Structures are given as structure tokens and as C-alpha cells.
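Structure in, sequence out. Go:
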């Protein structure tokens, strides 16, 4: 059933007030603070109709109304006003990226942190990495007799570090020679090309086959491991929201956000959508009593990763969307200036 303009207005007021105060919204509050030209009886009738339609519920017969999941869905789809960041908030975002080393993983960490600080929710993020990343440099450093530290730097400044096994009788000079040959063969190539590389015909590299195999294995692991670059910030923010005052709800929330695999799945499901809002049970990866808002960023053909905020259904969606959009714009400007 299509809602009248007045019903939509009342529903928007209820959701906005409940998000702000975490208290059921009464007809008295609506008429006194928002709709002085409408009688209390009319508002009560509209509230009852919205409850009958499944958009509102009453915790007690004498209390006001609270939004349902369906109300939140309609709110973000049609009713929510567009938010705007203050100059102070924009300055805070710019400051977070002011002293970047160029490492995209550092950018992701700083972005997650500032998103959590500005929204007062837990933020989650993952740097984009795929088969199209270009290798800029590979470094192999001796560590122990039978192991070395492998560093892989891509065109998006992503650094992959991993300890790899090497022959115990390999000298530092031989490892350095292998390092030069690895760079000669793989520098400038896409990660996907390296994974498909065949060294069967490269007799000159045969003595370093073990090193080449380890490099290819490390790159394959990097491309396929969606959870490897997951970043979490503001886990303690849930303590600021009454929904998680119950120990069981808090434990359930933490069990989700501290699982890198679950977070990776959340952030890759909608990786082609600029802003995605998933409410309650819309997604098997998101708990029924939570909402997830994510943004996928890119600058031209450069993928910058996916960032998100997870919190209660009573989330300030307007603020979260405006923060994610603001961070995305500043990230894009930062990359384009380089």
C-alpha cells in the first residue's frame, strides 16, 4: 500500500527522533515539535495505521512507537534527508590523510579510524587487491638459515610481506641473485600474469626454482585471501549505544566484527556498488539486529578499497553516508594529485 505524504512525514519524524534519542516517539512529541498544525488525534490515527502496516511497533500500550526494519528500509530508500559534513569534520578527514607514506594499507587504517571517530560506530575496511595490480618491486631478505622475508610492492603501494622457505644451503649472494632475477622476470607484470607463469622453459632460473615457486605461491595467496587486508577500528564504540547493554547482544556483535572472514565477505558482496546499505536480516553475513553501510572507492581505474560502518538498526544513516562520501571524495582527490 502506498503511503500518503503525511504518513511519510510522520514516519520520517519517528525514525529521526528514535535515532537521536533511542526513546519511543509519542504523538505528543510529534505535534509539539514537528507538526503543530495537525491535531494529536490525527497523528495518533496515522501512527496506528503505520503500526498496522508494519512500519512501527509499540513496546507497551502506553508508550510511543519505535521503527521496524521495514521502516528503516523505507527511510534510507526514500525519506532520509541528505547530510552534509561540517567544515571541522572535513578538516578532520583531511588531517587523517595529511602525512601519508604512500602505502595504501596505511591509508586504509587511517580511513577506518577517522570514519569510526566521526560516526561513533565500529568501522571496517579492506584494501582492494586483485589480479590487475602491477608489481613494482620484489625484495627478498635473508632471515634465518632456511627462511627469508619476501616483500612485494604493487602500483597501488600495497605491501605484502611474508616469510618464505629457502634451501638451507643457499648463500646470501645466491639469494641476492635470485632477487634480481625475480624482479627481472616479474616487475611490471600483473599479479594474474605471475600466477599463471610457467618456468619450465627457463633453464637459467632452474637453480632458483624454489624461490620462484615461493614468490608465485605468495602472490596467489595474496590475491585469493580476501581477509588478509581487513582493518577494524572503534570496536569499543558499541558501548556508546544502549542496544548493546545486554551482554549477549554485545558478545554476538563482537563475534561478528572480530572475524576477518565474515568482515571480508561483508565488504566484497557489493564491491561494484558505490554506497550500499544493508539493514537487519537482508544479508546472511550481517546480524539481524545490525545494519551495515559500505562504500567502494576508486579514482579512475585505481581501486582504493571498500569501507564500511556496522552498528545498530538505530543507526544515524544520514551521518554515516555523508562521512563515507566525504572520505571517498578526499581519498579520490589525494590519489588524483599524485
Amino acid at each position: 500500500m502506498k503511503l500518503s505524504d503525511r504518513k511519510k512525514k510522520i514516519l520520517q519524524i519517528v525514525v529521526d527522533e528514535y535515532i537521536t534519542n533511542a526513546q519511543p516517539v509519542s504523538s505528543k512529541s510529534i505535534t509539539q515539535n514537528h507538526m503543530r498544525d495537525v491535531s494529536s488525534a490525527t497523528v495518533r490515527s496515522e501512527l496506528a495505521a503505520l503500526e498496522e502496516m508494519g512500519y512501527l511497533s509499540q513496546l507497551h500500550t502506553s508508550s510511543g512507537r519505535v521503527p521496524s526494519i521495514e521502516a528503516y528500509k523505507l527511510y534510507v530508500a526514500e525519506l532520509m534527508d541528505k547530510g552534509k559534513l561540517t567544515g571541522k569534520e572535513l578538516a578532520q578527514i583531511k588531517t587523517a590523510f595529511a602525512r601519508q607514506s604512500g602505502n595504501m594499507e596505511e591509508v586504509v587504517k587511517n580511513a577506518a579510524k577517522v570514519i569510526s571517530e566521526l560516526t561513533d560506530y565500529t568501522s571496517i575496511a579492506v584494501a582492494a587487491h586483485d589480479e590487475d595490480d602491477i608489481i613494482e618491486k620484489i625484495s627478498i631478505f635473508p632471515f634465518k638459515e632456511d627462511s627469508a622475508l619476501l616483500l612485494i610492492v604493487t602500483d597501488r603501494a600495497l605491501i605484502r610481506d611474508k616469510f618464505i622457505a629457502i634451501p638451507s644451503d643457499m648463500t646470501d649472494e645466491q639469494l641476492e641473485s635470485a632477487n634480481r632475477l625475480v624482479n627481472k622476470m616479474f616487475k611490471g607484470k600483473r599479479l594474474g600474469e605471475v600466477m599463471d607463469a610457467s618456468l619450465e622453459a627457463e633453464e637459467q632460473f632452474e637453480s632458483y626454482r624454489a624461490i620462484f615457486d615461493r614468490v608465485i605461491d605468495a602472490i596467489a595467496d595474496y590475491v585469493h585471501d580476501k581477509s588478509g587486508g581487513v582493518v577494524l577500528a572503534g570496536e569499543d564504540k558499541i558501548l556508546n549505544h544502549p542496544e548493546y547493554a545486554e551482554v549477549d547482544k554485545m558478545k554476538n556483535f563482537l563475534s561478528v566484527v572480530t572475524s576477518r572472514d565474515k568482515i571480508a565477505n561483508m565488504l566484497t558482496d557489493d564491491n561494484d556498488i558505490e554506497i550500499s546499505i544493508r539493514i537487519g536480516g537482508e544479508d546472511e553475513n550481517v546480524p539481524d539486529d545490525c545494519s551495515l553501510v559500505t562504500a567502494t572507492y576508486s579514482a579512475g581505474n585505481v581501486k582504493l578499497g571498500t569501507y564500511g560502518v556496522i552498528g545498530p538498526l538505530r543507526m544515524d544513516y544520514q551521518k554515516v553516508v555523508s562521512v563515507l562520501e566525504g572520505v571517498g571524495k578526499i581519498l579520490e582527490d589525494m590519489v588524483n594529485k599524485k
